[in-house]
Amino acid sequence: MGITMTNGNKHDMQTNNVQQADNLISRRALLATLGVAGAALGSTALLLPGWAEAAPGGSVNNDVYAKEPGGVPGQIDTIITRLNNMCAINIKDYGAVGDGTTDDTEAFRNAALTGKPLIVPRTDAFYKVSGTIFIRNSIYGIGMPEIRMEGADGTVGKRLLAIASYKGSGLHVTGLHLNGQYTGGSAGEQSHLLRVTDSRHVYIHHNRFDSAYGDCIYFGSDYLGPCEDVHVYSNMLIDPWRCAVSIVSARRVWVRDNVILDGFDYVATIDIEPNRTNSGSDIVEDVWIENNIYDSVGVFVNSYNPNAAFKNKRLTIRGNQGQARYFFRCNAGDVGNTEDVSITDNIFYGSVGDARMFTTGRVRKGLEIRGNRDAGTGGAGWNIANAEAPVICNNTIEVNRLIAMSVRNCNRILMCGNTIKHVYSSYGAIRISGPEPSTGNVISHNVLVGSDYGIRFDTIVTDTVVSGNSIEAARQCIYLAPEASGSDVRIMPDNVFSGAGAPVGNAGYVQRLMTPEGLAKGAAVSWADNVTTTGEWVRGSLVYRTDVSSSDYVGWVCVTSGTPGVWEPFGRIGEERLVLRSTMGSRYAVTVTDTGSLQTTLL
Protein backbone atom coordinates (compact mmCIF):
# COMPACT_ATOMS: atom_id res chain seq x y z
CA MET A 1 0.00 0.00 0.00
CA GLY A 2 1.67 3.20 -1.11
CA ILE A 3 1.10 6.77 -0.01
CA THR A 4 2.38 10.12 -1.15
CA MET A 5 4.04 12.12 1.58
CA THR A 6 3.89 15.92 1.47
CA ASN A 7 5.91 17.34 4.34
CA GLY A 8 4.34 20.47 5.71
CA ASN A 9 0.96 19.75 4.10
CA LYS A 10 -0.89 17.40 6.36
CA HIS A 11 -4.15 17.80 4.47
CA ASP A 12 -2.62 16.23 1.36
CA MET A 13 -1.45 13.22 3.31
CA GLN A 14 -4.72 12.83 5.18
CA THR A 15 -6.74 12.97 1.99
CA ASN A 16 -4.55 10.29 0.52
CA ASN A 17 -4.80 8.12 3.62
CA VAL A 18 -8.58 8.59 3.87
CA GLN A 19 -8.94 7.35 0.31
CA GLN A 20 -6.87 4.29 1.15
CA ALA A 21 -8.78 3.68 4.35
CA ASP A 22 -12.11 3.96 2.57
CA ASN A 23 -10.92 1.26 0.24
CA LEU A 24 -9.80 -0.78 3.22
CA ILE A 25 -13.11 -0.62 5.05
CA SER A 26 -15.64 -0.17 2.25
CA ARG A 27 -18.81 -2.23 2.32
CA ARG A 28 -17.59 -4.60 -0.36
CA ALA A 29 -14.20 -5.03 1.31
CA LEU A 30 -15.89 -5.53 4.64
CA LEU A 31 -18.26 -8.19 3.33
CA ALA A 32 -15.47 -9.91 1.47
CA THR A 33 -13.41 -9.93 4.62
CA LEU A 34 -16.32 -10.90 6.80
CA GLY A 35 -17.56 -13.91 4.86
CA VAL A 36 -19.54 -14.68 7.98
CA ALA A 37 -19.02 -11.28 9.52
CA GLY A 38 -15.32 -11.89 9.46
CA ALA A 39 -12.80 -14.62 9.60
CA ALA A 40 -13.63 -14.27 13.25
CA LEU A 41 -17.11 -15.62 12.70
CA GLY A 42 -15.65 -18.56 10.88
CA SER A 43 -13.61 -19.57 13.88
CA THR A 44 -14.76 -22.62 15.74
CA ALA A 45 -14.70 -20.58 18.91
CA LEU A 46 -17.56 -18.40 17.68
CA LEU A 47 -19.66 -20.76 15.58
CA LEU A 48 -22.20 -21.67 18.18
CA PRO A 49 -24.78 -24.42 17.63
CA GLY A 50 -27.28 -22.99 15.18
CA TRP A 51 -30.42 -21.31 16.27
CA ALA A 52 -31.54 -17.76 15.74
CA GLU A 53 -33.12 -15.62 18.39
CA ALA A 54 -35.05 -12.37 18.11
CA ALA A 55 -36.86 -10.15 20.53
CA PRO A 56 -40.59 -10.81 20.95
CA GLY A 57 -42.34 -9.86 17.75
CA GLY A 58 -39.07 -9.42 15.84
CA SER A 59 -36.86 -11.46 13.55
CA VAL A 60 -33.45 -11.48 12.00
CA ASN A 61 -34.34 -11.50 8.31
CA ASN A 62 -33.36 -10.32 4.88
CA ASP A 63 -35.80 -7.42 4.97
CA VAL A 64 -33.28 -5.55 7.11
CA TYR A 65 -30.28 -6.21 4.90
CA ALA A 66 -31.76 -6.76 1.40
CA LYS A 67 -30.18 -8.90 -1.29
CA GLU A 68 -27.53 -8.40 -3.90
CA PRO A 69 -28.60 -6.50 -7.05
CA GLY A 70 -31.41 -8.25 -8.90
CA GLY A 71 -32.74 -9.85 -5.75
CA VAL A 72 -30.41 -12.83 -5.99
CA PRO A 73 -29.24 -14.05 -2.61
CA GLY A 74 -25.57 -13.16 -2.20
CA GLN A 75 -22.94 -12.73 0.46
CA ILE A 76 -25.27 -10.84 2.77
CA ASP A 77 -27.68 -13.78 2.88
CA THR A 78 -24.78 -16.04 3.78
CA ILE A 79 -23.73 -13.67 6.52
CA ILE A 80 -27.24 -13.50 7.92
CA THR A 81 -27.63 -17.27 7.87
CA ARG A 82 -24.42 -17.77 9.78
CA LEU A 83 -25.18 -14.96 12.20
CA ASN A 84 -28.53 -16.61 12.85
CA ASN A 85 -26.69 -19.83 13.55
CA MET A 86 -24.64 -17.96 16.13
CA CYS A 87 -27.70 -16.77 18.06
CA ALA A 88 -27.12 -13.22 16.81
CA ILE A 89 -29.85 -10.66 17.42
CA ASN A 90 -30.75 -7.52 15.51
CA ILE A 91 -30.63 -4.32 17.54
CA LYS A 92 -33.61 -3.05 15.51
CA ASP A 93 -35.70 -5.80 17.04
CA TYR A 94 -35.00 -4.13 20.39
CA GLY A 95 -36.24 -0.73 19.30
CA ALA A 96 -33.20 0.91 17.71
CA VAL A 97 -34.25 3.23 14.91
CA GLY A 98 -31.06 4.75 13.47
CA ASP A 99 -32.77 7.85 12.10
CA GLY A 100 -30.28 10.30 13.62
CA THR A 101 -32.96 11.79 15.87
CA THR A 102 -34.22 9.03 18.15
CA ASP A 103 -32.04 8.23 21.16
CA ASP A 104 -31.17 4.55 20.65
CA THR A 105 -29.14 4.13 23.86
CA GLU A 106 -31.67 1.97 25.71
CA ALA A 107 -32.34 -0.17 22.65
CA PHE A 108 -28.63 -0.99 22.39
CA ARG A 109 -28.40 -1.63 26.12
CA ASN A 110 -31.42 -3.96 26.15
CA ALA A 111 -30.06 -5.93 23.23
CA ALA A 112 -26.63 -6.15 24.88
CA LEU A 113 -28.17 -7.41 28.14
CA THR A 114 -29.17 -10.63 26.36
CA GLY A 115 -25.50 -11.56 26.12
CA LYS A 116 -26.00 -12.56 22.48
CA PRO A 117 -23.96 -11.35 19.50
CA LEU A 118 -25.39 -8.10 18.14
CA ILE A 119 -26.14 -7.22 14.52
CA VAL A 120 -26.20 -3.51 13.68
CA PRO A 121 -27.58 -2.87 10.18
CA ARG A 122 -26.74 0.31 8.30
CA THR A 123 -29.46 2.94 7.98
CA ASP A 124 -29.82 6.04 5.84
CA ALA A 125 -28.81 8.19 8.82
CA PHE A 126 -27.03 7.09 12.03
CA TYR A 127 -27.70 5.67 15.48
CA LYS A 128 -27.75 8.36 18.14
CA VAL A 129 -26.70 7.35 21.66
CA SER A 130 -26.18 9.42 24.78
CA GLY A 131 -24.54 7.00 27.24
CA THR A 132 -22.29 3.99 27.53
CA ILE A 133 -23.29 0.62 26.09
CA PHE A 134 -21.68 -2.37 27.82
CA ILE A 135 -21.42 -5.24 25.38
CA ARG A 136 -21.04 -8.84 26.54
CA ASN A 137 -20.62 -10.54 23.19
CA SER A 138 -19.56 -9.71 19.66
CA ILE A 139 -21.06 -6.80 17.73
CA TYR A 140 -21.18 -6.81 13.93
CA GLY A 141 -21.99 -3.88 11.70
CA ILE A 142 -23.48 -4.67 8.29
CA GLY A 143 -22.70 -1.98 5.73
CA MET A 144 -20.62 0.16 8.14
CA PRO A 145 -23.43 1.68 10.26
CA GLU A 146 -22.56 4.87 12.13
CA ILE A 147 -23.12 5.21 15.88
CA ARG A 148 -22.74 8.74 17.25
CA MET A 149 -22.24 9.81 20.84
CA GLU A 150 -24.47 12.80 21.58
CA GLY A 151 -22.99 15.53 23.77
CA ALA A 152 -19.57 14.00 24.44
CA ASP A 153 -17.83 16.09 27.10
CA GLY A 154 -14.77 14.07 28.07
CA THR A 155 -16.47 12.41 31.07
CA VAL A 156 -16.80 8.69 31.82
CA GLY A 157 -20.54 8.82 31.24
CA LYS A 158 -19.99 9.59 27.58
CA ARG A 159 -17.95 6.52 26.71
CA LEU A 160 -19.58 4.85 23.74
CA LEU A 161 -18.90 1.09 23.90
CA ALA A 162 -17.39 -0.75 26.86
CA ILE A 163 -16.24 -4.33 27.43
CA ALA A 164 -15.53 -5.35 31.02
CA SER A 165 -14.16 -8.65 32.36
CA TYR A 166 -14.89 -10.67 29.23
CA LYS A 167 -13.21 -14.09 29.57
CA GLY A 168 -14.74 -15.98 26.66
CA SER A 169 -13.12 -17.52 23.62
CA GLY A 170 -13.51 -14.50 21.34
CA LEU A 171 -15.40 -11.21 21.21
CA HIS A 172 -15.36 -9.25 17.93
CA VAL A 173 -16.11 -5.59 17.34
CA THR A 174 -16.25 -5.17 13.59
CA GLY A 175 -17.89 -3.28 10.76
CA LEU A 176 -18.84 -0.19 12.80
CA HIS A 177 -18.35 3.54 12.37
CA LEU A 178 -18.07 4.98 15.90
CA ASN A 179 -18.18 8.76 16.06
CA GLY A 180 -17.46 10.73 19.24
CA GLN A 181 -18.06 14.10 17.51
CA TYR A 182 -15.13 15.78 19.26
CA THR A 183 -14.24 19.10 17.64
CA GLY A 184 -12.27 20.82 20.40
CA GLY A 185 -11.99 21.56 24.10
CA SER A 186 -10.14 20.12 27.06
CA ALA A 187 -12.85 19.64 29.69
CA GLY A 188 -11.94 15.95 30.06
CA GLU A 189 -10.34 12.99 28.31
CA GLN A 190 -12.41 9.96 29.31
CA SER A 191 -15.12 9.78 26.63
CA HIS A 192 -13.53 6.84 24.80
CA LEU A 193 -15.16 5.24 21.78
CA LEU A 194 -14.30 1.72 22.95
CA ARG A 195 -13.05 0.89 26.44
CA VAL A 196 -11.85 -2.65 27.17
CA THR A 197 -10.86 -3.66 30.71
CA ASP A 198 -9.85 -6.90 32.42
CA SER A 199 -10.73 -8.88 29.29
CA ARG A 200 -9.16 -11.42 26.98
CA HIS A 201 -9.55 -12.57 23.38
CA VAL A 202 -11.01 -9.34 22.05
CA TYR A 203 -10.74 -8.64 18.31
CA ILE A 204 -11.33 -5.10 17.02
CA HIS A 205 -11.18 -4.92 13.26
CA HIS A 206 -12.57 -3.31 10.09
CA ASN A 207 -14.06 -0.35 11.94
CA ARG A 208 -13.85 3.41 11.61
CA PHE A 209 -13.25 5.41 14.80
CA ASP A 210 -13.86 9.15 14.53
CA SER A 211 -13.24 12.11 16.83
CA ALA A 212 -13.13 10.62 20.32
CA TYR A 213 -13.24 13.01 23.29
CA GLY A 214 -10.70 10.65 24.83
CA ASP A 215 -9.22 7.52 23.21
CA CYS A 216 -10.46 5.69 20.17
CA ILE A 217 -9.56 2.40 21.89
CA TYR A 218 -8.51 1.97 25.52
CA PHE A 219 -7.12 -1.21 27.13
CA GLY A 220 -6.95 -1.21 30.93
CA SER A 221 -7.52 -3.19 34.09
CA ASP A 222 -9.94 -1.26 36.31
CA TYR A 223 -7.32 -2.36 38.92
CA LEU A 224 -8.51 -5.98 38.51
CA GLY A 225 -6.16 -7.46 35.93
CA PRO A 226 -4.61 -6.69 32.56
CA CYS A 227 -6.29 -7.39 29.27
CA GLU A 228 -4.79 -10.37 27.45
CA ASP A 229 -4.62 -11.46 23.81
CA VAL A 230 -6.28 -8.40 22.29
CA HIS A 231 -6.09 -7.44 18.63
CA VAL A 232 -6.61 -4.14 16.80
CA TYR A 233 -6.31 -4.49 13.04
CA SER A 234 -7.54 -3.09 9.73
CA ASN A 235 -9.27 -0.11 11.32
CA MET A 236 -9.22 3.58 10.57
CA LEU A 237 -8.67 5.79 13.63
CA ILE A 238 -9.16 9.52 13.11
CA ASP A 239 -8.38 12.54 15.28
CA PRO A 240 -8.96 11.49 18.90
CA TRP A 241 -8.40 14.13 21.55
CA ARG A 242 -6.17 11.74 23.47
CA CYS A 243 -4.91 8.48 21.86
CA ALA A 244 -5.78 6.33 18.90
CA VAL A 245 -4.85 3.31 21.04
CA SER A 246 -4.13 3.62 24.75
CA ILE A 247 -2.48 0.58 26.35
CA VAL A 248 -2.73 1.05 30.12
CA SER A 249 -2.75 -2.59 31.19
CA ALA A 250 -2.46 -5.51 28.79
CA ARG A 251 -0.44 -8.56 27.84
CA ARG A 252 -0.08 -9.75 24.26
CA VAL A 253 -1.44 -6.86 22.26
CA TRP A 254 -1.40 -6.61 18.48
CA VAL A 255 -1.96 -3.24 16.74
CA ARG A 256 -1.48 -3.82 13.04
CA ASP A 257 -2.51 -2.79 9.54
CA ASN A 258 -4.44 0.28 10.67
CA VAL A 259 -4.64 3.74 9.11
CA ILE A 260 -4.22 6.36 11.85
CA LEU A 261 -4.68 10.11 11.45
CA ASP A 262 -4.01 12.02 14.66
CA GLY A 263 -4.31 15.78 14.47
CA PHE A 264 -3.97 16.51 18.21
CA ASP A 265 -0.67 16.68 20.10
CA TYR A 266 -2.13 16.08 23.56
CA VAL A 267 -1.01 12.48 24.18
CA ALA A 268 0.81 10.03 21.91
CA THR A 269 -1.04 8.36 19.08
CA ILE A 270 -0.25 4.96 20.61
CA ASP A 271 0.47 5.41 24.30
CA ILE A 272 1.90 2.63 26.48
CA GLU A 273 1.44 3.98 29.99
CA PRO A 274 0.18 1.99 33.00
CA ASN A 275 -1.56 3.71 35.89
CA ARG A 276 0.44 4.14 39.06
CA THR A 277 -0.15 1.15 41.34
CA ASN A 278 1.69 -1.22 43.67
CA SER A 279 -0.66 -4.16 43.12
CA GLY A 280 0.59 -5.36 39.73
CA SER A 281 -2.82 -4.92 38.16
CA ASP A 282 -1.49 -2.40 35.65
CA ILE A 283 1.28 -3.90 33.53
CA VAL A 284 2.16 -3.87 29.84
CA GLU A 285 4.01 -6.81 28.29
CA ASP A 286 4.38 -8.19 24.77
CA VAL A 287 3.07 -5.55 22.38
CA TRP A 288 3.33 -5.71 18.60
CA ILE A 289 2.75 -2.48 16.63
CA GLU A 290 3.12 -3.47 12.99
CA ASN A 291 2.43 -2.27 9.46
CA ASN A 292 0.34 0.77 10.33
CA ILE A 293 0.11 3.91 8.21
CA TYR A 294 0.21 6.96 10.47
CA ASP A 295 0.04 10.74 10.33
CA SER A 296 0.61 12.18 13.80
CA VAL A 297 1.29 15.80 14.67
CA GLY A 298 2.92 14.64 17.92
CA VAL A 299 4.38 11.30 19.05
CA PHE A 300 3.50 8.11 17.21
CA VAL A 301 4.51 5.65 20.00
CA ASN A 302 5.29 6.61 23.60
CA SER A 303 6.30 4.31 26.45
CA TYR A 304 6.32 5.26 30.13
CA ASN A 305 5.85 3.26 33.32
CA PRO A 306 5.58 4.87 36.77
CA ASN A 307 5.76 1.50 38.57
CA ALA A 308 9.36 0.55 39.34
CA ALA A 309 8.49 -3.08 40.07
CA PHE A 310 6.58 -3.67 36.83
CA LYS A 311 8.42 -2.52 33.72
CA ASN A 312 6.97 -2.19 30.22
CA LYS A 313 8.44 -5.25 28.50
CA ARG A 314 8.94 -6.67 25.04
CA LEU A 315 7.70 -4.05 22.62
CA THR A 316 8.00 -4.77 18.89
CA ILE A 317 7.47 -1.83 16.53
CA ARG A 318 7.88 -2.98 12.97
CA GLY A 319 6.99 -2.03 9.41
CA ASN A 320 5.09 1.21 10.15
CA GLN A 321 5.14 4.12 7.70
CA GLY A 322 4.17 7.77 8.03
CA GLN A 323 5.01 11.13 9.54
CA ALA A 324 5.10 12.53 13.07
CA ARG A 325 7.07 14.85 15.31
CA TYR A 326 8.55 11.80 17.08
CA PHE A 327 8.30 8.20 15.96
CA PHE A 328 9.24 6.60 19.30
CA ARG A 329 9.71 8.36 22.63
CA CYS A 330 10.66 6.94 26.01
CA ASN A 331 12.05 9.78 28.11
CA ALA A 332 9.88 10.03 31.23
CA GLY A 333 10.27 8.35 34.61
CA ASP A 334 13.09 6.21 35.95
CA VAL A 335 15.81 4.83 33.70
CA GLY A 336 14.89 1.26 32.84
CA ASN A 337 11.11 1.57 33.15
CA THR A 338 10.87 0.06 29.65
CA GLU A 339 12.97 -2.82 28.39
CA ASP A 340 13.42 -5.18 25.42
CA VAL A 341 12.30 -2.82 22.67
CA SER A 342 12.75 -3.88 19.05
CA ILE A 343 12.18 -1.16 16.44
CA THR A 344 12.74 -2.45 12.92
CA ASP A 345 11.95 -1.69 9.28
CA ASN A 346 9.92 1.48 9.84
CA ILE A 347 9.75 4.55 7.58
CA PHE A 348 9.59 8.01 9.14
CA TYR A 349 8.88 11.39 7.60
CA GLY A 350 9.36 14.25 10.06
CA SER A 351 6.31 16.49 10.22
CA VAL A 352 8.02 19.58 11.70
CA GLY A 353 11.42 21.26 11.66
CA ASP A 354 12.66 19.70 14.92
CA ALA A 355 11.31 16.20 14.31
CA ARG A 356 13.19 13.20 15.70
CA MET A 357 12.61 9.59 14.80
CA PHE A 358 13.89 8.38 18.19
CA THR A 359 14.28 10.04 21.54
CA THR A 360 14.81 7.51 24.31
CA GLY A 361 16.65 7.76 27.59
CA ARG A 362 14.77 5.17 29.65
CA VAL A 363 15.30 1.89 27.79
CA ARG A 364 18.26 0.47 29.70
CA LYS A 365 18.10 -3.14 28.50
CA GLY A 366 17.39 -4.75 25.15
CA LEU A 367 17.15 -1.76 22.80
CA GLU A 368 17.36 -2.83 19.15
CA ILE A 369 17.01 -0.36 16.26
CA ARG A 370 17.47 -2.02 12.87
CA GLY A 371 16.59 -1.43 9.25
CA ASN A 372 14.71 1.84 9.72
CA ARG A 373 14.58 4.65 7.19
CA ASP A 374 14.56 8.20 8.51
CA ALA A 375 13.56 10.64 5.77
CA GLY A 376 12.50 13.40 8.16
CA THR A 377 13.37 16.96 7.29
CA GLY A 378 13.93 17.95 10.90
CA GLY A 379 17.14 19.56 12.08
CA ALA A 380 17.27 17.22 15.08
CA GLY A 381 18.63 13.70 15.04
CA TRP A 382 18.24 10.51 17.03
CA ASN A 383 18.75 10.84 20.77
CA ILE A 384 19.62 7.53 22.44
CA ALA A 385 20.76 7.62 26.06
CA ASN A 386 21.44 5.43 29.09
CA ALA A 387 21.26 2.12 27.20
CA GLU A 388 23.36 -0.94 27.89
CA ALA A 389 24.40 -2.88 24.76
CA PRO A 390 22.06 -1.15 22.30
CA VAL A 391 22.03 -2.53 18.76
CA ILE A 392 21.86 0.19 16.09
CA CYS A 393 22.36 -1.44 12.72
CA ASN A 394 21.45 -1.17 9.04
CA ASN A 395 19.47 2.05 9.35
CA THR A 396 19.36 4.84 6.76
CA ILE A 397 19.25 8.54 7.64
CA GLU A 398 19.07 10.51 4.44
CA VAL A 399 17.90 14.09 4.84
CA ASN A 400 19.96 17.18 5.69
CA ARG A 401 20.18 17.91 9.41
CA LEU A 402 22.53 19.23 12.07
CA ILE A 403 23.10 15.91 13.81
CA ALA A 404 22.09 12.40 12.84
CA MET A 405 22.67 10.18 15.84
CA SER A 406 23.59 11.17 19.39
CA VAL A 407 24.37 8.29 21.75
CA ARG A 408 24.82 9.42 25.35
CA ASN A 409 25.91 7.52 28.46
CA CYS A 410 25.73 4.17 26.66
CA ASN A 411 28.05 1.18 26.84
CA ARG A 412 28.73 -1.79 24.57
CA ILE A 413 27.13 -0.12 21.58
CA LEU A 414 26.93 -2.21 18.42
CA MET A 415 26.64 0.34 15.60
CA CYS A 416 27.15 -1.19 12.19
CA GLY A 417 25.92 -1.06 8.63
CA ASN A 418 24.20 2.34 8.92
CA THR A 419 24.07 4.85 6.06
CA ILE A 420 23.95 8.52 7.07
CA LYS A 421 23.87 11.34 4.53
CA HIS A 422 24.42 15.10 4.66
CA VAL A 423 24.99 16.14 8.27
CA TYR A 424 26.44 19.65 8.28
CA SER A 425 27.68 20.67 11.72
CA SER A 426 30.47 20.07 14.19
CA TYR A 427 28.18 17.77 16.22
CA GLY A 428 28.98 14.91 13.88
CA ALA A 429 26.93 12.38 11.96
CA ILE A 430 27.51 9.98 14.89
CA ARG A 431 28.23 11.45 18.30
CA ILE A 432 29.29 9.40 21.33
CA SER A 433 28.99 11.56 24.43
CA GLY A 434 28.71 11.51 28.20
CA PRO A 435 29.21 12.85 30.73
CA GLU A 436 29.76 9.21 31.73
CA PRO A 437 32.61 7.29 30.03
CA SER A 438 31.66 4.73 27.40
CA THR A 439 33.24 1.29 27.00
CA GLY A 440 33.14 -1.86 24.91
CA ASN A 441 31.76 -0.38 21.68
CA VAL A 442 31.98 -1.60 18.08
CA ILE A 443 31.47 0.99 15.34
CA SER A 444 31.91 -0.73 12.03
CA HIS A 445 30.98 -0.74 8.36
CA ASN A 446 28.94 2.45 8.45
CA VAL A 447 28.76 4.73 5.41
CA LEU A 448 28.78 8.46 6.17
CA VAL A 449 28.25 10.64 3.12
CA GLY A 450 28.66 14.40 2.82
CA SER A 451 29.21 15.08 6.51
CA ASP A 452 31.04 17.95 8.16
CA TYR A 453 32.28 15.80 11.03
CA GLY A 454 31.89 12.03 10.72
CA ILE A 455 32.23 10.22 14.05
CA ARG A 456 32.74 12.44 17.09
CA PHE A 457 33.77 11.36 20.60
CA ASP A 458 32.87 13.80 23.38
CA THR A 459 33.67 11.59 26.35
CA ILE A 460 36.38 9.12 27.36
CA VAL A 461 35.87 5.90 25.43
CA THR A 462 37.64 2.63 26.22
CA ASP A 463 37.88 -0.81 24.62
CA THR A 464 36.26 0.53 21.47
CA VAL A 465 36.88 -0.55 17.87
CA VAL A 466 36.25 1.71 14.85
CA SER A 467 36.66 -0.48 11.80
CA GLY A 468 35.65 -0.77 8.17
CA ASN A 469 33.77 2.53 7.95
CA SER A 470 33.59 4.71 4.84
CA ILE A 471 33.58 8.36 5.93
CA GLU A 472 33.38 11.39 3.68
CA ALA A 473 33.87 14.57 5.72
CA ALA A 474 34.63 18.22 5.03
CA ARG A 475 36.51 18.84 8.29
CA GLN A 476 37.11 15.76 10.44
CA CYS A 477 36.32 12.15 9.55
CA ILE A 478 36.86 11.08 13.17
CA TYR A 479 37.21 13.67 15.89
CA LEU A 480 38.18 13.41 19.54
CA ALA A 481 37.11 16.38 21.65
CA PRO A 482 39.29 17.39 24.62
CA GLU A 483 36.85 15.52 26.90
CA ALA A 484 37.90 12.30 25.11
CA SER A 485 41.62 12.70 25.84
CA GLY A 486 43.19 9.42 26.95
CA SER A 487 40.61 7.27 25.16
CA ASP A 488 41.34 3.72 24.06
CA VAL A 489 39.70 3.96 20.63
CA ARG A 490 41.24 1.53 18.19
CA ILE A 491 40.84 3.22 14.83
CA MET A 492 41.77 0.41 12.48
CA PRO A 493 43.56 0.76 9.13
CA ASP A 494 40.56 -0.63 7.18
CA ASN A 495 38.53 2.57 7.50
CA VAL A 496 38.26 4.57 4.27
CA PHE A 497 38.54 8.34 4.66
CA SER A 498 37.57 10.73 1.87
CA GLY A 499 36.66 14.37 1.41
CA ALA A 500 38.70 17.41 2.37
CA GLY A 501 38.66 16.64 6.09
CA ALA A 502 41.43 15.18 8.24
CA PRO A 503 41.15 11.45 8.92
CA VAL A 504 41.54 11.81 12.71
CA GLY A 505 41.26 15.07 14.58
CA ASN A 506 43.29 15.22 17.81
CA ALA A 507 44.87 11.82 17.18
CA GLY A 508 47.17 12.42 20.14
CA TYR A 509 44.22 11.87 22.48
CA VAL A 510 44.18 8.17 21.53
CA GLN A 511 46.20 5.73 23.63
CA ARG A 512 46.99 3.43 20.69
CA LEU A 513 46.98 4.74 17.15
CA MET A 514 46.28 1.71 14.96
CA THR A 515 46.46 3.45 11.57
CA PRO A 516 49.12 5.75 10.06
CA GLU A 517 46.30 7.89 8.67
CA GLY A 518 45.72 9.07 12.18
CA LEU A 519 48.76 11.32 11.66
CA ALA A 520 49.12 11.52 7.89
CA LYS A 521 46.12 11.46 5.58
CA GLY A 522 46.60 8.88 2.87
CA ALA A 523 49.42 7.05 4.65
CA ALA A 524 48.98 3.32 4.24
CA VAL A 525 50.41 -0.01 5.25
CA SER A 526 50.57 -2.68 2.56
CA TRP A 527 52.52 -5.74 1.37
CA ALA A 528 54.49 -6.43 -1.86
CA ASP A 529 57.44 -8.44 -3.21
CA ASN A 530 59.33 -5.34 -4.33
CA VAL A 531 59.44 -1.63 -3.68
CA THR A 532 56.59 0.12 -5.49
CA THR A 533 57.28 2.05 -8.69
CA THR A 534 53.79 3.29 -9.50
CA GLY A 535 50.97 5.21 -7.86
CA GLU A 536 50.78 8.18 -5.55
CA TRP A 537 52.12 7.62 -2.05
CA VAL A 538 52.20 9.66 1.13
CA ARG A 539 55.23 10.06 3.37
CA GLY A 540 55.10 7.57 6.23
CA SER A 541 53.51 4.77 4.20
CA LEU A 542 54.99 1.33 4.73
CA VAL A 543 55.29 -1.59 2.33
CA TYR A 544 56.18 -4.88 4.01
CA ARG A 545 58.04 -7.41 1.93
CA THR A 546 56.23 -10.72 1.37
CA ASP A 547 59.12 -12.61 -0.31
CA VAL A 548 61.49 -12.51 2.65
CA SER A 549 64.40 -14.59 3.88
CA SER A 550 67.31 -14.27 6.27
CA SER A 551 69.32 -11.07 5.83
CA ASP A 552 66.56 -9.42 3.69
CA TYR A 553 65.00 -6.07 4.47
CA VAL A 554 61.66 -6.18 6.25
CA GLY A 555 60.25 -3.65 3.78
CA TRP A 556 60.31 -0.05 2.59
CA VAL A 557 59.19 3.27 4.00
CA CYS A 558 58.14 6.28 1.95
CA VAL A 559 60.31 9.20 3.05
CA THR A 560 59.08 11.72 0.46
CA SER A 561 55.51 11.93 -0.86
CA GLY A 562 55.06 11.65 -4.61
CA THR A 563 54.39 9.38 -7.56
CA PRO A 564 55.72 6.91 -6.58
CA GLY A 565 57.64 8.94 -3.96
CA VAL A 566 61.04 8.24 -2.46
CA TRP A 567 61.40 4.90 -0.64
CA GLU A 568 64.04 3.58 1.74
CA PRO A 569 64.44 0.01 2.97
CA PHE A 570 64.17 -0.69 6.66
CA GLY A 571 65.00 -3.54 8.97
CA ARG A 572 67.24 -6.56 8.43
CA ILE A 573 66.11 -10.06 9.35
CA GLY A 574 68.33 -12.42 11.37
CA GLU A 575 71.54 -10.31 11.60
CA GLU A 576 73.16 -8.74 14.62
CA ARG A 577 74.44 -5.63 12.89
CA LEU A 578 73.64 -1.99 12.29
CA VAL A 579 73.53 -0.68 8.72
CA LEU A 580 74.49 2.96 8.18
CA ARG A 581 74.58 5.13 5.06
CA SER A 582 77.38 7.68 4.50
CA THR A 583 76.78 11.20 3.20
CA MET A 584 78.03 10.02 -0.20
CA GLY A 585 75.59 7.14 -0.27
CA SER A 586 77.84 4.25 0.69
CA ARG A 587 76.37 1.67 3.06
CA TYR A 588 78.32 0.08 5.93
CA ALA A 589 77.50 -2.73 8.32
CA VAL A 590 78.60 -2.08 11.88
CA THR A 591 79.02 -5.13 14.16
CA VAL A 592 80.38 -5.64 17.64
CA THR A 593 82.85 -8.30 18.83
CA ASP A 594 82.67 -10.23 22.09
CA THR A 595 85.27 -7.82 23.50
CA GLY A 596 83.17 -4.80 22.58
CA SER A 597 85.17 -3.64 19.58
CA LEU A 598 83.25 -2.20 16.61
CA GLN A 599 83.93 -3.44 13.12
CA THR A 600 82.87 -1.68 9.92
CA THR A 601 82.25 -3.48 6.64
CA LEU A 602 81.39 -1.85 3.31
CA LEU A 603 78.25 -3.29 1.80
UniProtKB/TrEMBL annotation:
InterPro entries: PbH1 (IPR006626), Pectin_lyas_fold (IPR012334), Pectin_lyase_fold/virulence (IPR011050), TAT_signal (IPR006311). This is Uncharacterized protein.
